[in-house]
Amino acid sequence: MTPNSAKPAAAETYPGNRFAHRPLRHVSERLIEGVLFLAAFSAVAVTVAIVFILVAESAAFFEHVPLIDFLTDTQWTIMFSEKHYGVAPLLAGTLVTTTVGLLLAVPVGTITAIYLSEFAGPRTREIVKPVLELLAGIPTVVYGYFALVMVTPALQYFMPDLPGFNMLGPGLVIGIMIIPYISSVAEDAMRAVPLHMREGSYAMGATRLQTALRVVVPAATSGIVAAYILGISRAIGETMVVAVAAGQQPNFTWDPREPGATITAFIVQVALGDLPHGSIEYQSIFAVGLVLVLMTLFFNVLGHLARKRFREAY
């Protein structure tokens, strides 16, 4: 082989040629970058569009209903001849059912996450995790009839004066429904804690329970808080459980034993098509929907601040 014949092969294998300017390659990279940007921007665009529609329709509603009356009136009777547009009964029903659900889901979900992360063996985890995922995949309308047919009669056995429609039964079922969300996210946060922190705790003579409660849980607090915020958002936005089992009666009360209606249940009730499009009653669903979005935004911002604080602390 002559020296001249070896030069083309050397030129082809020279590393710099692989990084040479190729217009077609840059065009394809730009195209892929644009597609990825559109995919990411679509989520922001949809959120902005939803907020814009809610604000625009709510503005038309507040042209007829003063904002003060909307926030301070304790009656919501848009379906009656004497109309009242106070959002307080719907807000109270939403907060009561959410609170009842969280009182059940937060401790049970946290304990489940601690068990799966620190105590359960691989075989047990392989059984429990799919069951939790199955629990999360059950349609919410099934949960609603479960609350109406099973949970409420069981509660009436201990509380004979409990009415057939109440907020306690749906609230407990909402808690059962969001347990998988809290336990799954919290467990992922706990399993992400570095192993050397556990080993250091064991080296100091701590037990598995002490290590889980005093080392793993504090280190995973930011992720656990995120799980709680996810559960709160899921409970606030629940529709079918309260629509089926809570009675759909706007009632300004903080007693979970009474019937009530939530914001989402009212939206479902009005959106069935009985009211004409463009009427004040129809526009009211956008006003209460805006309140729901603001509530969810408040809890998400609160959760973000809490996660930031705990992340800085640990």
- The tally of structural domains comes to 2
Helicity, in percent?
Answer: over 70%
Question: What structural class should be given to the helix and strand makeup?
Answer: mainly alpha
The geometry reads as globular
Give the mean pLDDT: 84
CATH superfamily of the largest domain: MetI-like
Beta-sheet strand percentage? under 5%
Q: Sketch the major β-sheet.
A: none
Give a count of the beta strands, DSSP E runs of length 2 or more: 0
Radius of gyration: 27 Å
**The first-level CATH class name of the largest domain:** Mainly Alpha
Order of helices and strands: HHHHHHHHHHHHHH
Count of DSSP H/I helices: 14
Q: In terms of per-residue confidence, which ranges show pLDDT below 50 for 5 or more consecutive residues?
A: none
| CATH topology (fold) name of the largest domain | MetI-like fold
Distance between the termini: 66 Å
CATH architecture name of the largest domain: Orthogonal Bundle
List keywords for this structure.
single chain; 314 residues; mainly alpha; MetI-like fold; 0% strand; globular
Question: What layout of secondary structure does this protein have?
Answer:
Blueprint: H1 3-13, H2 15-18, H3 23-62, H4 67-72, H5 88-119, H6 122-137, H7 140-158, H8 168-191, H9 195-203, H10 208-219, H11 221-236, H12 240-245, H13 263-270, H14 280-313
Overview in brief:
It is built from 14 helices and no strands.
What does this structure look like?
The chain is mainly alpha-helical. The chain folds into two domains: 20-63; 70-313, MetI-like (MetI-like fold, Orthogonal Bundle). The chain has helices at 3-13, 15-18, 23-62, 67-72, 88-119, 122-137, 140-158, 168-191, 195-203, 208-219, 221-236, 240-245, 263-270, 280-313. Helix 5 runs parallel beside helix 8 and helix 11 (221-236) runs antiparallel to helix 14. The longest helix is centred in the N-terminal third of the chain and has 40 residues, at 23-62. 33% of the residues are buried.
